[in-house]
């Protein structure tokens, strides 16, 4: 493990366009955070695209801050 504490990782969050701006994503995030609140996690982490400014604004509005970590990927 590369972290000293446990973190819940949110890997995908998508809301169909016709249901956006209705609180669906906020409710999903709250539900995920509520599920882990007594599971000994010290926080939450997630990834989003550098160009996905809408998602970035959403996460920041919900208390998330950008970290300095790098993600690497190799496609096969």
Question: What does this 3D model show about the protein?
Answer:
The structure is a single chain. The chain has a single domain (7-61), classed as Aminopeptidase, CATH 3.40.630.30. The chain is built from 2 helices and 2 strands. The chain has helices at 24-36, 53-61; strands at 7-10, 43-46. Strands 1-2 form a two-stranded parallel sheet. Strand 1 (7-10), helix 1 and strand 2 (43-46) form a beta-alpha-beta unit.
Write out the strand line-up for the largest beta sheet, numbering strands in chain order.
Answer: 1-2
Annotated CATH architecture: 3-Layer(aba) Sandwich
pLDDT averaged residue by residue: 90
Helical segment tally? Answer: 2
| Radius of gyration from the alpha-carbon trace, in angstroms | 14 Å
Distance between the termini: 24 Å
Task: Please write out the topology.
Layout: E1 7-10, H1 24-36, E2 43-46, H2 53-61
Parallel strand pairs: 1-2
Brief overview:
With about 80 residues, this protein is of the alpha+beta class.
How would you describe this structure in keywords?
Aminopeptidase, 76 residues, two-stranded parallel sheet, single chain, acyltransferase, transferase
